[in-house]
User: Which sequence fits this backbone?
């Protein structure tokens, strides 16, 4: 037996009132005057005993009446019991965990798995009664569409109808945590959780090795119903990865792309078409044949014809699950690169300016020359790249450092007048390896080193050599250089004879740094006169500027941290993949350089503008774990429940059978408050009868006295 209003039971203290009154009455001595002692002997002893017995019966009846009335208000309930077949089922508090992730969108002859799950919920609701309450958690909406209990069945059915397949993938464990929080507030004796899912192994928990036992708490009398919707395994090929092979993008030059495709179906799939789209135009197409469980990489070559934001996607022809048949990436190729060159001595930039002036007109570079004294007062974020020649700018170090950490790209070389201490100070403040020494032969133009090892696989050397041509670079003569050791912080691109880098690359915060260890002037080396100089300087700028967004993979439902440091406006405009628009007030961001955008329920390219200026962009894709068609057995699911310390009952329901009968049998119970009120009423009638009889006996005794 359980009580629906257990706090009312404190009222049982009132049952002590008749006892207290009875005990107080015993202390009241009633003086009866009589004429002779002989009269006492004439009293009928049997009548006295009868009066006392009735008084004890009255005490018991009055106590029982209070006990039954208080208990009735506490709503006593017998669960899973029907008394003589006359009682109704106890009221239920029900939480539905509805799996609406895209793996549930597969269609059979009965409709999609999601629609089948919705129909089962409706049939369960048909068996509900007045006073029952309901809540639903859609797995893709965990943490976003938290529903409290409601007893409005009509509105609840509308909520169920409005749940659609989603690109967002969440784990069942996350939904179980929310279900535990909701069911803890249940007001009814029957506490039920229904899980309607395909029970993918890969989407139970994100990390099977984490300790999750303390994360889910359910009342011990909770009933959990496992309803597996899967009737047949869907045909599913999925694009699980898509990447750009290049790191430097140039107009009218070829770029490579690789798509990774996996067959999750239990049979071989033949001749499926895979297409590459650039800015919504089909640019290439191939076919793929995959055995069950096999993975294959498909490589495409295409020419980029437009500057600006380039949206690239790869698509498979449709199968049973279409949401994972496409994947997106985006790159940005500026129509004109904005480059700032800061120098200690303006003449130090002569060869750099000359080299950059040789670039083709399809992607020109707009150069601004400034003194290193101006670094502190310059808004560096408005430049695509910053080229620094020199080290005499202590006041501007913090501004430069912040620019790099925010995602800025810089090329750094010493200047003609840079001392070891100045250059060491700059590199140390930027968290770069500090130079050990300045190598030279008493400032004479005598060769002290040459190129040794060159990483020709680095993107800086892509398209610089004719295919199959032996890759050779004539080493310049190095007269002066700072000896630097990368110490594991970066990677050497060009090394000198002593093993120290002539050119090295570093990731600092969200930005990149290309570091040359010699000034680009003839007193330090004749590098500026070599044929490799101009192409390498141009490639250095393009490599830093023309890259994909520097971020980890973003899956549907994840947050995008948007860089808004390059523009100001009253509103940030977000263009979503379905051509809808969101607006965010810049007042909400204050002086922040990033803001969090969370409305990522669709896959595709998201762009962020301040007016007409593109601030940032991001590609959102499906979580590849949602594509894996490997399912839990009932025993494995019970192991999961054991792991989370679930103590309630578990029922495995077959949706193809009469599941409503099984549910009725498990949930049936009887509320006893009406019976307790009737018993209290009957006891009250008995009490009234005995009370009248006792009063007559007492009157009779008084007359005889």
Assistant:
């Amino acid at each position: 037996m359980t009580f629906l209003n257990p706090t009312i039971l404190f009222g049982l203290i009132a049952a002590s009132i008749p006892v207290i009154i009875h005990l107080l009455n015993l202390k009241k001595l009633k003086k009866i005057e009589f004429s002779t002692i002989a009269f006492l002997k004439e009293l009928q002893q049997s009548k006295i005993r009868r009066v006392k017995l009735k008084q004890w019966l009255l005490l018991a009846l009055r106590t029982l009446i209070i006990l039954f009335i208080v208990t009735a208000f506490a709503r006593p309930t017998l669960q899973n019991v029907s008394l003589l077949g006359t009682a109704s089922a106890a009221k239920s508090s029900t939480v539905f965990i509805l799996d609406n992730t895209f793996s549930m969108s597969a269609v059979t002859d009965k409709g999609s798995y999601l629609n089948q799950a919705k129909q089962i919920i409706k049939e369960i609701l048909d068996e509900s009664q007045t006073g029952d309450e309901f809540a639903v958690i859609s797995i893709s909406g965990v943490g976003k569409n938290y529903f409290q209990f409601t007893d409005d069945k009509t509105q609840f059915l509308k909520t169920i109808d409005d749940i659609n397949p989603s690109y967002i993938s969440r784990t069942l464990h996350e939904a179980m945590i929310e279900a535990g929080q909701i069911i803890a507030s249940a007001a009814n004796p029957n506490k039920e959780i229904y899980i309607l899912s395909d029970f993918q192994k890969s989407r139970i928990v994100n990390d099977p090795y984490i300790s999750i036992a303390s994360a889910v708490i359910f009342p011990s009398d909770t009933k959990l119903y496992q309803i597996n919707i899967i009737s047949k395994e869907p045909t599913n090929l999925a694009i699980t990865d898509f990447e750009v092979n290049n790191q430097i993008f140039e107009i009218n030059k070829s770029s490579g792309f690789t798509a990774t495709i996996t067959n999750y179906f239990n049979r071989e799939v033949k001749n499926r078409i895979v297409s590459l789209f650039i800015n919504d135009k089909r640019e290439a197409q191939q076919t793929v044949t995959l055995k069950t469980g096999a993975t294959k990489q498909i490589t495409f070559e295409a020419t980029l014809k437009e500057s600006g934001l380039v949206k690239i996607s790869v698509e498979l022809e449709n199968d049973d699950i279409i949401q994972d048949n496409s994947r997106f990436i985006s790159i940005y190729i500026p129509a004109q690169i904005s480059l700032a060159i800061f120098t200690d001595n303006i003449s130090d930039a002569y060869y750099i300016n000359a080299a950059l002036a040789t670039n083709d007109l399809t992607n020109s570079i707009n150069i601004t020359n400034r003194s290193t004294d101006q670094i502190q007062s310059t808004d560096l974020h408005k430049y695509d790249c910053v080229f620094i020649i020199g080290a005499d700018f202590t006041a501007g170090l913090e501004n430069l450092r912040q620019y790099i950490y925010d995602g800025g790209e810089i090329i750094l070389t010493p200047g003609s007048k840079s001392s070891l201490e100045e250059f060491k100070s700059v590199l140390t403040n930027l968290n770069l390896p500090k130079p050990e020494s300045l190598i030279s032969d008493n400032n004479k133009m005598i060769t002290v080193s040459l190129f040794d090892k060159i990483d020709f696989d680095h993107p800086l050397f892509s398209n610089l050599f004719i295919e199959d041509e032996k890759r050779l670079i004539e080493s310049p003569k190095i007269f002066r250089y700072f000896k630097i050791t990368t110490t594991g912080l970066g990677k050497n691109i060009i090394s000198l004879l002593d093993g120290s880098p002539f050119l090295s690359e570093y990731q600092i915060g969200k930005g990149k740094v290309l570091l040359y260890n010699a000034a680009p002037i003839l007193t330090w080396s004749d590098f500026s006169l070599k044929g490799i100089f101009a192409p390498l300087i141009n490639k250095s700028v393009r490599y830093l500027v023309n890259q994909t967004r520097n971020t980890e993979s973003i899956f549907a439902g994840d947050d995008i941290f948007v860089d808004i440091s390059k523009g100001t406006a009253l509103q940030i405009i977000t263009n979503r993949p379905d051509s809808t628009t969101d607006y965010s007030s810049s007042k909400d961001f204050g002086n922040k350089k990033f803001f969090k955008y969370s409305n990522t329920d669709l896959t595709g390219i998201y762009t962020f503008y301040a007016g007409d200026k593109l601030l940032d962009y991001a590609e959102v894709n499906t979580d590849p774990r949602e594509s894996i068609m490997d399912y839990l057995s009932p025993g494995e699911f019970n192991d999961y429940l054991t792991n989370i310390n679930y103590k309630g009952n578990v029922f495995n329901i077959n949706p193809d059978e009469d599941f409503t009968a099984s549910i009725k049998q498990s949930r049936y119970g009887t509320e006893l408050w009406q019976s307790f009120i009737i018993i209290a009423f009957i006891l009250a009638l008995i009490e009234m009868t005995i009370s009248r009889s006792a009063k007559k006996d007492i009157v009779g005794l008084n007359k005889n006295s």
Summary: Residues 560-620 form one domain. The first helix runs from residue 16 to 26.
